[in-house]
Structures are given as C-alpha cells and as structure tokens.
Design goal:
- The chain is built from 8 helices and 12 strands.
- Strands 5-3-4-2-1-6 form a 6-stranded mixed beta sheet, covered by helices on one side. A 6-stranded mixed beta sheet has the order 7-8-9-11-10-12.
- Helix 6 crosses helix 7 and helix 6 crosses helix 8.
Length: about 325
C-alpha cells in the first residue's frame, strides 16, 4: 500500500463580512469555512433581505404622507430632493403613486426620473427596494423603464439617498395624465394603461389644515382617512376617550368607524355623508386635532366606557401592511 503523503494545512484567507461576495446558495462559502454559502454567510444575507421593517419610511420627512401615498391615494406625485444633488443629465426626480404598466421606475426621454411607490417589493424593506430602483433609474438610458429586482441586503435605503431636511409636499391629481407629457405620442400600451387607471381612480383630496388627512369619494359615501404619527396604543386610548365622550365625530352624521394599520402607523377612518366634500371637513378636522392633542396628553386610566369604546375600535381595525 502506498505511503500516505503528509497533508499540509494551508492557511485560509481571513475575510471580513463586507468582503464576502455573493455566490450560489449551494456553492462553498468564499470565506473558506468549508460550509455551503446558504449555511454560512448567506444565512445572514438572506435574513437581512427578508426581515420585515415595520416602519420603512421612518426618518423621512412626511412619513405619514409616504404611508398614505403607498396605501390610500390613487394618483399623486412629489418632487424628491437627493442628498448629493441631481446627477448630470437628470433634471428632476419625482415620486409617483403608480406608473404606467406598473413599472417600478421610468427614465423619461428628457432624462428625468419617475419612481413608482405602489409596487410589490422583493424584500421586507420597502425603503431599500425603492432606493435600489432609484439608483438604477438614475443610470438608465433616457426613455426606458426600470424593472424590479431584489435589492442587495447591504444596499442603501431612501434615508441614505434623500435630503431629509427637504420638504415633502404631495400633489394629488384627479387622474394619471402626469404619466404622459405628450399624450398624442404615447404608445397604445401606455394609453390603454392610462385609461384603465383613470377609470379605477377614486376621487381624493388632501386636506390643507392638518397633516396627512385624505378625503375620498366612493359610490355610497365619502370618507376621511388620516394617517397619524402617534404610537398605536397611545393613539387608540386617546380615540377611545373621545369616542366614549361623543367627541370623535367630524360633524353631523359623521362617525369614526375604525382604523387601518399600515407600515407601523395607525390610520383612523371616518364615514362622511355623500354631500360632505373635502372643503366641508377642513374646519372639523382642525378642531378634532385639538381635541385629540388633549386626549393624547391624558394619562389617567381608561374608564369602563372608554375601555369598551377602545375594544370596539380595535375590533374594527384592518391591517393593510
């Protein structure tokens, strides 16, 4: 029997986590551990990609409006300000609720960028996915859409790219004509997508006197949906106090009917008579904001009636995301 050759143990290169390249899940991990990538450094990378970020827009100006535009508002745009300024050849970056053909982003012929907000995302962090889409749109050829993909786990988030000191001022539109500056030359596919989107859009208006409150009209009644920044438990207590005291309405024949939960924030919803328009609810909403501030400042335990009111509000809460 042949003599066994003595084996030498070569010193494996020591790599930091930031130096580990992404390889196939079943391939040996590049760190030299001898384990498959998915069982070694790939495990942390996969977890970072899929872990749900409860408040993806936290830290951005207008967090409540980000949530509203993501979940509630059909047609709206907002001009975005980049932290490092606009790259050469990009005259503007605009956030849009929806883009034609459900594109994640579009680099227009003039070089400007439209970033779609209401798209499915591949990871648990909407902010990271949107940032990845935005960066690729800034480098795309003019006149081309950007397709979706899973963002790198270590990629930047919107909070890293946007100027967090710049104002966030949504403009709500009646339809999606902002898609096509030159409607006569739009492709048949875009024209058809525009017609479908306009037909499905619910008339919506953003109130001016309070933040992130949106009136909308539906066939049977109107609604006010108001995204609020307060901690959920504290807000529900305050709403319950007002509801039990008969002070939670926005006027005659209006009532607080429940709330949505979306991206870590709570969205109280009121039913309004069909004849009550957005302008009609401006003053009642401002007065309610004052009553809510007082209720939020109250620290006394809930009474029996208030606890029952809170239970009713909780039972009528719907999670959107």
């Amino acid at each position: 029997m042949a003599k066994k050759r003595p084996q030498t143990k070569a010193k494996r290169p020591q790599l930091t986590d930031g130096e580990i390249p992404v390889v196939g899940a079943r391939e040996p991990c590049p760190c030299g551990s001898g384990r498959r990538y998915k069982a070694c450094h790939g495990r942390a990378a996969a977890h970072a990609v899929t872990e749900l970020v409860q408040r993806p827009f936290e830290g951005l100006p207008g967090e409540c409006d980000w949530v509203a535009l993501r979940e509630l508002v059909p047609a709206a745009t907002v001009g975005l300000t980049l932290k490092d300024g606009l790259p050469e050849g990009v005259p503007a970056v605009t956030l849009a609720t929806v883009l034609p053909m459900a594109w994640p982003a579009l680099r227009r012929d003039d070089g400007s960028v439209l970033l779609g907000l209401q798209n499915d995302t591949a990871s648990g962090d909407i902010s990271r996915d949107l940032a990845d889409t935005l960066l690729r749109a800034l480098e795309a050829d003019p006149g081309t859409p950007v397709q979706g993909r899973r963002a790198p786990a270590d990629g930047p988030r919107l909070q890293d790219l946007l100027d967090t000191e710049a104002p966030f001022e949504p403009v709500v539109h009646e339809g999606f004509e902002f898609w096509v500056p030159d409607a006569e030359n739009a492709t048949p596919e875009v024209t058809a997508s525009l017609e479908r989107a306009n037909a499905a859009a619910i008339p919506t208006v953003r109130l001016q006197g309070v933040e992130a409150a949106y009136w909308c009209r539906t066939p049977e009644k109107n609604h006010l949906r108001w995204v609020m920044p307060h901690p959920e438990e504290q807000l529900l207590d305050a709403l319950a106090r007002l509801h039990a005291a008969g002070r939670s309405s926005l006027g005659e024949n209006t009532r607080l009917v429940g709330s949505f939960r979306a991206h870590g924030l709570t969205v109280p919803v009121w039913d309004l008579p069909s004849e009550v328009g957005a302008q009609d609810v401006e003053k009642p909403a401002a007065e309610f904001a004052e009553r809510l501030a007082e209720a939020l400042a109250t620290r006394a335990p809930l009474t029996g009636d208030e606890r029952r009111a809170r239970g009713g509000l909780t039972n009528r809460q719907v999670t959107l995301s």
